[in-house]
Each structure stands twice: as C-alpha cells, then as structure tokens.
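#structure-requests
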Amino acid sequence: MKKFIIFGVSLFLLVHTVSAFNVSLTNTFGGNQDNVGTSDFLKFDSDGTKQTAVVGDRIQFDLASEKIDGRVRVNIRGDVDFATLLQGYANVRPIKQLNFIAGNAFFWKWASSSAYLAGIDDYLAHGLLLDKNGFGILADISPSDSGFGLKLSSGLGIDSHVDLNFGAEFALNDIFKIAATAQDVLENTRTFASSAELLSLDNFLLNAGYVYNNSDQTYIQNTEHLIHVSAGYSLKDINLSFYATVLSGLNNISLDATTNEFVTKANGVPLTAAVRIYYADLENLKIGTSASYKHVLNETDSSNIFTVYPFVDYDTRFGIFRTGIRTSFDDNGFKSLSIPFSWQYTISLKK
C-alpha cells in the first residue's frame, strides 16, 4: 500500500504541465528475463522436458524536460498468471542544482557509474545514491568551467520498513570519479559502499568498489564483505566491445534474512564472474555473447553454476527483435536450456 501511495504522488508530479519536453513510449513484448520482466519464452529442464511457453509485456513511458523527468512502467508477467506490476518515479528540479524525487521504483536514476557492472550490463544496487524507492533530495553541484562535479543526497526508502539513506559522488575533470553510499543506516541490515572509476582513458572502462553487508542478491548472494571490479574496452572502428566483471565475497559470512544476524556458511567465498562481447558492424544486426560463473555457498556445502548466452538483435523499422539460446550447467552437468524472444519498439515525441 505504501508503494502505491508513493507512486500516486510520483504520477501527479510526472504529468504536471511542462513547456518543452521529450517523451517516449517503449513497448517490449515476448519472453525474456533481461528486458521483458518474465522468464524466457521457451525453457527446457535438465531431462529435456519443455515447460509452458511464456509471453509477457513491458510498457514504459519516459518524460524529460528542464524541470522534471520521470518514468512509468507496467510489467505484465506472463509466467505469474499475467500479474501486473506498476512502477515509476518523478524527479523535479525547481532549480538546476536541486532535485526532489519520489516513486516506488527509481530504477537506475542517480546510479553512480563507478558501480556499473560492465560484464553484466547492470548496476549494483548499493551504487544508487538514493536507493531504490521512496522520497529523496539530491544536490547536483557542477560549476561552469570548474572541472569537477559533486552530488550529495539523502532519502527515505520504503520496503518492509522506512530506511534512511545517504549518498555522495565526486568527479574531477574527466580523470576519476568516486562515490559512497550508506543505506538503511538505522537498522541491523545497514550497508556501506564505496566505489571508484577511472575516466581518463579513451574507449576504456575501469571501476572497482567495496560493500559492507551486501544485500543486493541479483547477481551474488548476500555477504558480509564484497568487492567488485569491472573493465571494458571498445574498438570503435570495427564496433567490437569487450566487458568483464568480478564480484567476490571476502569471507563465508552473510546476514540471515530472518534473524538479521551474521551466520557462517560453507567454506569458501561467494563469487560471480561475467563477460560480454558485442559486435555491431553488420547491417541492422548486432551479435553478442555473455557468459557467467557463480560459486554459491549453502549451509554445509557449495555449488557452481555456469551460464552461456549467445544472442542476436535485428533492428528493423518495426522495432528490435532479439533472440538467442541461454544454456546453464551446474555440478551435475546440464541444468537447463531456454530460448528468449523479445520485440521492442519505441515511439518518441519532442515538443
């Protein structure tokens, strides 16, 4: 209920009259865990059994102007009885340097690029200067011709409880960027994170960071101490790009979600490694491959999961079509195979 109250406030701010703006409507249809919000279109278990085909839809409205920007997204989950999820935010700037934001999902708004996981093409949640939802204020201080930029933020997030969050980011003259966040600071579930990014090398990406009490389990399980490193390089002359990310715990201790106490799991450390390769020098065609490895700690043992996903994007006047083959293996060998499919098109308007 709290999230929908926040969303109502965001929607009201979002539709407030603006004099000049850009709006876009993006619709993504199909079954693809990466960009539709459902599981993949076709999935086969380790014994070859095919599960029910899955389709869903993601409708996204984006608005940008001098004083306000925002997003409204509706996910229709074809793999969960077509359940509908409504998300969005509005970000208002009464003056250029001051931002007020409210919503039930900020997505990656005000995420620091120093926490970008290049090998995965996503951000670590602890790199969000204003966390994931709620209300917040952010000062964006970048004096003209000064060569530096400074962001300072504070906000209240609302999930199962109200949490207090802080963030800061400093960038110097296209040389480096550093960021720090403190999330849920009043609870035992509090996290502290810092990250840094090198900005001075052309076509090269490099960042690294540390998190105390990582709770973002999207790509690695929760762990008391987490480090992450990402790198990438683009050969622009031939439109070829390489990216890699490593996330690793420093011990086998994690926070128990039930007791909010740290517990020790099996020997070893949680680990995720991921790479991506893109080639886009073909007419209307983009070819890519991603691969990931996860070492997961259980109560008394550990497990390993390897996934490889070659895919292709075909860009037409009717939109972008994506498909591929996602194959996973674990300690017992072949685990699953899925075939994602999505069709995405965007309609834009500029006033």
